[in-house]
Amino acid sequence: MGEMKKITYTACIVAAGRGTRAGGGVPKQFRPLAGQSVLAWSVDVFASDPVCTQIIIAAPPGDIDETRRQAGKHAGRCLFIEGGATRTASVRRCVEAAEQDHVLIHDAARPLLSQPVIERLVTALASHDGAAPSLAVVDALVRDDGAEIEPVDRTPLHRIQTPQAFATGKLLAAFSACEGKDFPDEVSLARSQGLAIGLVDGEERNFKLTWPEDFERAESLLSPTPHPALQVTGMGYDVHRLDAGDGVHLCGVFIECPLRLIGHSDADAGLHAITDALLGAAGLGDIGEHFPPTDERWRGADSVMFLEHALQISKEAGATPVHCDVTLICERPKIGPHKAAMKAKVADILGLPLRRVNIKATTTEKLGFTGRGEGLAAEAVVTCRIGSD
Ligand code: MG
């Protein structure tokens, strides 16, 4: 069995219309759409198809230069031909210039053509004179003759799109046989000459830009969807022992009181919990890995430095804090009078607006180590935005 001959084809893009029904004041195939002209979108699809070896564009009469300017980045490999007085005349000129044995004729006003539709058409050409993408009619249909409304059975009816694909020689013969006649599309012309046409599945998104709202729909379909910002959350928990002293550091604020927090650094359990929460959100381990308590450098250290460092490496890892919530758990000192200062301090370190930082405090009803005043605990939750994953 011999290898089946691979079908290559010439794409003929009909861009010769002057239709301004869709608004914008210029022919619709030249209107901008999601970063380039309507026409350029179709040119791009054919230019990226390896079995499309020639692209011919029918330009409005007298507008070849403008059409070339609007054809996009592949204009250099397109052949531009001045269109005729009718669609049929324009298409015929393109098909006469086609070098391939097969042609795909496409409306420039359908910028959302997809490669699978082209592949189905090319496949159908192996067993038919021509092929077209078709869609079912979903709405009920009636015939209105002015006097009576009669329902029409939609079952055998199809909506036909472009590209319409043909054996070049057979289509040229049909053009010759129909000299001087105009047809709404090439399937109509081909069927008038008895050519065998296969229908393949079309696509709803391959719609024809006709009305102003069609442009909005096409724009949203062709515009790249921004990756939704993702959020991640980390939690932190820390405890330090309380003893008699002359004040404690909590959430970056020094509170004068007859207590002190015991620890290797300044023992700011609030900032330590926030630091761990941030590292957790960024997936960067915990505070002990970055600032080992055995390291002499951190003796008596200001915990603001820990959080600043965690912020820097989190941002480098792509995680930027957007919210921080803290709960301080102790009987003493009283946190309430210092909440505003703590909130301002944490917001300042993290670069957040005040409304994105929350400081809460609770007691444990004299229960447990916090209730007995042996220690102070802090919990924090930090939410980060990450660009993408
Ligand atoms: Mg700690």
Walk me through the structure.
By secondary structure, this protein is an alpha/beta fold. It folds into two domains: 9-222, Spore Coat Polysaccharide Biosynthesis Protein SpsA, Chain A (Alpha-Beta Complex), CATH 3.90.550; 231-386, 2-C-methyl-D-erythritol 2,4-cyclodiphosphate synthase (60s Ribosomal Protein L30, Chain: A). It has helices at residues 38-47, 64-70, 87-96, 115-125, 168-177, 186-192, 212-222, 269-282, 287-290, 303-316, 339-350, 368-371; strands at residues 9-14, 32-33, 36-37, 52-59, 78-82, 102-107, 130-136, 141-144, 149-152, 158-160, 164-167, 197-201, 230-244, 248-250, 253-255, 259-262, 319-329, 357-362, 375-386. The strands form five sheets. Strands 1, 4, 5, 6, 7, 10, 11 and 12 form an eight-stranded mixed beta sheet that branches. The protein has a five-stranded mixed beta sheet with strand order 16-13-19-17-18. Helix 3 crosses helix 5 and helix 8 packs parallel to helix 10. The protein is elongated and about 105 Å long. Bound molecules: magnesium ion. Magnesium ion (MG) binds next to strand 13 and helix 8. Magnesium ion is lined by residues 238, 240, 263, 269, 272.
